[in-house]
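#struct-pred

JT: dropping the chains for the assembly here, can someone run the whole complex?
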Amino acid sequence: MSTSTAALRLGLLGAPNSGKTTLFNALTGLRARVGNYPGVTVERREAQVTLGDRSAVVIDLPGTYSLEPLSPDEEVVARVLAGDFDAAPDALVVVADACSLERSLPFIGAVLLREQPTCLVLTMIDELAARGGRIDLPRLERALGIPVLGVVGHRGRGLDRLVALLGTPESWSRPTLTPPRDPLERAGWADSVFASVVDTRPGAHRLTDAVDRWVLHPVVGSLLFVAVMVTFFQLIFAWATPAMDAIDAGIAAVAGFLHASLTPGPLVDFLADGLVAGVGAVVIFLPQIVLLFGLLYLLEDVGYMARAAFVVDRLMGRVGLEGRAFVALLSSYACAVPGIMATRTIPSPRERLVTILVAPLMTCSARLPVYALLIGAFVPAVPVFGPIGLQGLVLLALYVLGGLAALVAAAVLKRVLLPGSSLPFYLELPSYRMPSAKLWVGQVWGSARAFLRRAGTIILCVSMVLWVLLHFPVSTPPAGATPSQASRHALEHSFAGSAGRAIEPVIAPLGFDWKIGVGLLASLAAREVIVATLAQIYASSDEETSLRTAIRQDVDPETGRPIFDPPTVAALLVFFVFALQCMSTLAVMARETNSWRWPAFAFGYLLAIAYAASWVTHRAIAAWTGSA
Amino acid sequence: MNAVLPATPVSLRLSDLAPGQRGIVERVDASCPIGRRLLDLGFRPGTALRVIRRAPLGDPTSYELRGSRFCLRRSEADRVDVTLLPGG
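RK: done, full complex below.
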């Protein structure tokens, strides 16, 4: 029990889809503090509110169907109730969907056994009435012995009475008789309570049944699923592009303005090319994140996401994942950052972690400029079948290789790294509902804010550190050097240039020289940065044509053999298929898994695969083409 | 529960029911956590349920019971014994 000075702590308990989160948002507005429980990846949401004349903390506990924990989410519920993290809640608010009260009663009974002040909030009483159901609330109050209140959370109906009730848990009625402890006897108790309070059971949700006939139809439903996923893909890949281009242009304009209006020097270079570009590296993700989460939450709130998981579950089950992992992996084809954030919809933490660990293998759009450069420079544009050319086939092969690698890695990680009995698979198909615009805006804003605060700060710091490594120590270019030669000289003598030379012996077996080494180091910021870095090294004025020519003509000064020979080009392409060269992905992984252990592991295992696969490729192509 | 049982009740596994058929839960293996969770979801002895449909690829299957719709994979539905209701 709290002392008189401490704020009242109220725990919101209920099943997924019970309307608990809608109620939490209605009670607390957008003031929720979102974080993680220590040591677990479960999201922690609580908010400070004023109930009448006293302040209270409302804790939105993860959705659970039972107090006997199976998943870490449910473990957290048990630990919060036991007071493991903070002081235990002073009073419990059980939230249940009025239409599925019958199913929720055994859970309510289990909560009553804790003998704490408890009240019951029945949500969606409007839907109950619409479906012809009638529950005698006063009789339910008497049968359970606790206060019962009906509300319509997203319309705010009943909220005033709820706020008044929540402020005075001391005066809540307590049950005179507790429900039976044995689960089966408690189920019988629940059935008798239900029979005594329900005048009419709610009928079927006609609209849901009618819509499901099409949405889950073997043919129509599958086509709809494909259409929704293509829209997802299109949204992140193409529709976000104008906004991203605008951000790019804006960043370039700000950098140009700084260069033009301040005295040239290292400080301006740092401000314009380090700091402003670093901010740009963060903001550039916002269009994709907002679009992805806009659609994701819309489909979730309407009730489609559970259906999509139902349709595709069997396919994902083959590699040990489940239906909900599909959206995350598909989104990663555009960018792993929103893709990894989308794994939040996967309830099983093991499957969520496996999905996060393999998401970087999906061919993201940042690999495209690298593939375009190397394929454009070295793969002949010859037709293979009619209009389909060799260049396109190579590109397609790289995409397929990434996707297959992700599926194989998922199957292997699931069995080897994270074995143990799986959570049982069960998925509730909620009734279709009209989403609430206010709730939706809050959800999308919450994701964007979480990204900016948690991952954005890391991305900004790392990109500034990389800038320093690429530009310091400052060296004096030889007299008479052109600006592009001076730029090459500066890079060659920077920390990154030295590091490129230092790792040359390690990457030499892949056919990579120090210049590619510098490019690989710089591409840790983002994969496509290797193109700009190579352009700087080869002192080429524009990235497209002259860089292609430059890397085609580059020869080893000692042997006179081309640096970019077929084995090296193939090895470099394969390296980019596997390696996790993206600090933004690493930062988002750290944020989503709540530790640096998993990003470190992902970086390591993908680097090992990339190295091994590049080496094999280099040897195989060398043997095949007869070059050494 | 005054469910009318068929003259010769046939006990089946839930996964054996075809879409459209109705049944009454007879027994759930409560010795394992999965079975206990199924109890918590409402798959309790005496519960009437209906098979709605299978997913396009044949698994999982959705069931309607106690006002909710739940999907189970075959491996979970195998743990529930049911009696087939006639005319389902």
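JT: nice. The beta strands of chain B are 11-13, 22-28, 48-54, 61-65, 68-72, 80-85. Chain B is about 15% helix and 40% strand.
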